[in-house]
Amino acid sequence: MSARRGTLRVAVIDRDTAFLKVLGKRLDAAGWEYRVLPGGAPADELVAMKLNALVVDPTALGPEEGWEFLDRISGLMPGLGIIACSTNSTVAQRVRGLRLGADDWVSKPCHPEEVMARIEAVVRRRRRSRPEAEQGPLVVGELEIRDDQFQAYVAGRTLDLTRREFELLEILAEAAGQVLERDEIYRRVWGYEMAHGDRSVDVFVRKLRAKIQKHSPGWDYIHTHFGIGYRFDPEPVDRTAMGAPEAPEALSEPEPEPGDLAGELAEISTETS
Amino acid sequence: MSARRGTLRVAVIDRDTAFLKVLGKRLDAAGWEYRVLPGGAPADELVAMKLNALVVDPTALGPEEGWEFLDRISGLMPGLGIIACSTNSTVAQRVRGLRLGADDWVSKPCHPEEVMARIEAVVRRRRRSRPEAEQGPLVVGELEIRDDQFQAYVAGRTLDLTRREFELLEILAEAAGQVLERDEIYRRVWGYEMAHGDRSVDVFVRKLRAKIQKHSPGWDYIHTHFGIGYRFDPEPVDRTAMGAPEAPEALSEPEPEPGDLAGELAEISTETS
DNA sequence: CGCCGTGTGAAAAGGCTGTGAAACGCGTCT
DNA sequence: AGACGCGTTTCACAGCCTTTTCACACGGCG
After folding, report:
1. Distance from C-alpha of B95 to C-alpha of A189, rounded to nearest angstrom
2. By the 8 A CB rule, do A169 and A152 touch?
3. CA–C1' distance B165–D16 (Å)?
4. CB–CB of A267/A256 below 8 Å?
5. pLDDT band, very low/low/confident/very high, at A43 (cuts 50, 70, 90)
6. How does B224-240 read in b/e, with b if 16+ C-beta sit within 10 Å?
7. For chain A, which end, N or C, has fewer CB atoms within 10 Å of the first or last residue's CB respectively?
8. What's the whole-number mean pLDDT along residues A138-146?
């Protein structure tokens, strides 16, 4: 996510000036990028910030709004580390917060160093379980996706993706092999709930496909799952499917052997049927 | 990993009997599988236990051994959730533990419910970040049902189920062994009340049967209960019941032996009588 | 034997997606 | 201010896939 390795991008939602001051100093010293938000921020804004973690005092948002926020934000941004941090919390509150999606809950007063260690632990937990180096440029098929550039490339040439196009591609590529529902895609890219009948996802998929194919024909990346959504999976385009009437069994087509994950996944796609 | 969904497998390394007793009671109540280890256990033994999480009091292992253990085990089993839990810890100790690889650090005395909530949070985060790692792709008979793909497979080959077909199969398979009434099936798949005389469920059961049998003949999965509904139960097809004139006694037919649960249930079904 | 519930095949209806283009919002340049 | 370029959103329509409906055959059950 972040440019440098070891540098994290964090947002802090709190009004506790003393806490903010002390924590801010430490964050500066560590060289982390951070931003303080006085109160709640629009969800799509938080999505756009590409955060690694979020430190939030639920009580700063109001008695009920805090819980709603935890619930909503954890659903909207899976992968974001959420550390709740409040004064005078009860066991029941902490349990509720953790169950709603918080990854950790620290009781104030607390040492900023410990808060940072817990942020690191939460973020590390996420990265560690992704064997693929997540911080490096993601390379799939002929595509190279650089999050530090907000751009994708093929053979070093830029695809000229717009911001939304890039974010859509990023979301899809990070969940490569997995089928994502339209609603979830919309929620994670646009940051709010999709209205019924909204075709934005479809339209952007089309634009993405066009730009990708222009630079990397010979590969199919985004597959449609009828009635569900889309799946990102780079695979060479199947030439046998083209209208060549002559039986081409001589040239061994890439028959997906059982047990081969790529092969399995390939057959799910709509165009296979 | 674990047999049932929602069930976690945990090991606790501690000597604090009071803590162990209280926590154990809660773990039992929640139905989690857990094991208490008095002291350190060989690393390979821990690996073999296929744990979701590990609760450990570093001080129970000795002044220095605790740190070494955290370091070693977190490196050895990335993906394992590690919750440290000790009395009278200092900020420096907690920071050190978290940096060494612990995912969370709870200070005793603590409420077992909070410990469990924190375990859940740690495991949840690990799972969410590795979607492809099967969080339980429900395997029954020769069938493999993957909800992250909205598809079912036999020997790695997709059944090409449509969305409704998949949802029907999922509902049935999750209630494997018990008979579901048409009304309930309809309500859970379609989301609203079934109109009188609606044959949709029947039609989709037929489609499902066709697609399943095409890929997995030799097994019966969906059984009809006259006047009631359907029951999902994978069982080898009974060749003796077939009116096949050619004597196939050479190939040993899988006779459902008495005492076998699947066999017993089988006799309830319509076609058996 | 007759009734009712279920299996089956196919036609009809409905919904979903691909696609091109127009409309809109926004910031920049002249 | 107005024109312009750019990116995003909305719209309409065609084509295809899915779902629903229907008619009929079959089989259990009283």
Report:
1. 35
2. yes
3. 19
4. yes
5. confident
6. beeeebbbbbbbbebee
7. C
8. 92
Q: What is the DSSP letter of B247?
A: -
Phi, then psi, of B150 in degrees rounded to 5: 55, 40
- DSSP code string of B133-171: S-S---EETTEEEETTTTEEEETTEE----HHHHHHHHH
**A225, A179 in Cβ contact below 8 A?**
yes
Alpha-carbon distances, residue B216 vs A236, A240, B202 (angstroms): 29, 27, 20
Give the count of beta carbons closer than 10 Å to the beta carbon of residue A3. Answer: 10
Global pTM value: 0.74
**A211 CA to D3 C1' distance (Å):** 29
What's the CA gap between A235 and A65, in Å, rounded? 45
| Over residues B25-49, mean pLDDT | 87
Task: Specify the DSSP class assigned to residue A197.
Answer: T
B95 contacts in chain A (CB < 8 Å):
111, 113-114, 117
**For the packed helices A65-76 and A91-100, what is the interaxial angle rounded to 10 degrees?**
30
Query: Which strand (E) or helix (H) includes residue B173?
Result: helix B163-174
Give the span between the Cα atoms of B120 and A202, in whole angstroms: 36
Instruction: Record the tokens describing residue A96, joined without a space.
Output: 């509720």
Q: Which residue does chain B place closest to A134, by CA atoms?
A: B129
The answer to whether B48 and B22 have CB atoms below 8 angstroms apart is: no
Q: Which amino acid is at B41?
A: A
